[in-house]
């Protein structure tokens, strides 16, 4: 039986937002967390640090190791994986959550911003996955990309960003196919609605009535990673879909405004043709 108890899990971008919420949710399952990001010192503009997440994970019943690192540095990615294995004795799960976002028509993209987005999104996911796979092979495990399904209709106005995120999804597809014989599964996860984080607040991406809390992605992550990787295969999951498979049918508790059901803003931004499946009644 696959259980998250005592599994060693690396979570990038773990100082705040989705990464921090996922780490704490995994800690509640008894996982041993390796928390990675650049933020150790408080920033008045962006609440949350690795040490805050570490305290929350330990309060939730898990163990947590803090590693400050820049995900764009491939040597730092190698060192992060090595530190996790040295400290906890192995590695079972990699959650590639760290991300950078910028939207603009191609003609308006600064090359420096392009390099940042690709470095934090696709390059870091590649470097970390490459370093993690030899250790995941030993006992089987998961690679999870926080990235969307692929639909070229969404490209105008956000092409470099989407290509960087689709690169993560494509990496998951490849890893899943290449490592199946070793008991390693890989998949992608994306929210249906916008999620309330420092990024969505600071960028003015909606309001409380249009957001769900980070808890929905945290719960979806636990549901995905609790599956036996030997019996799991690639899918670009949506948070609602994996939670439904886990038996969750009421998503009201995730609303940021309890009186408003958020629109499917997040999935429509990356998949304009998406249609919500009708609910089965009876």
Walk me through the structure.
The chain has a seven-stranded parallel beta sheet, with helices on both faces. It has 282 residues and is an alpha/beta fold. α3 runs parallel beside α4, α4 (111-139) packs parallel to α5 and α7 crosses α8 (239-245). The protein has one domain: NAD(P)-binding Rossmann-like Domain (Rossmann fold, 3-Layer(aba) Sandwich). The chain is globular. It is 41% helix and 14% strand.
Secondary-structure map with pairings?
Layout: E1 8-12, H1 17-28, E2 32-37, H2 50-59, E3 63-68, H3 74-88, E4 93-96, H4 111-139, E5 141-145, H5 159-179, E6 184-190, E7 194-195, H6 198-202, E8 211-212, H7 215-225, E9 236-238, H8 239-245, H9 265-270
Parallel strand pairs: 1-2, 1-4, 2-3, 4-5, 5-6, 6-9, 7-8
Helix pairs in contact: 1-2, 1-7, 3-4, 4-5, 7-8
Oligomeric grouping of the chains: single chain
Gross morphology: globular
Quickly give the structural class.
Answer: alpha/beta
Proportion of β residues?
Answer: 5-15%
Name of the CATH first level: Alpha Beta
The overall number of domains is 1
Q: What is the architecture at the second tier of CATH?
A: 3-Layer(aba) Sandwich
Low-confidence stretches: none
| Radius of gyration, taken over Cα atoms and rounded to an integer in Å | 18 Å
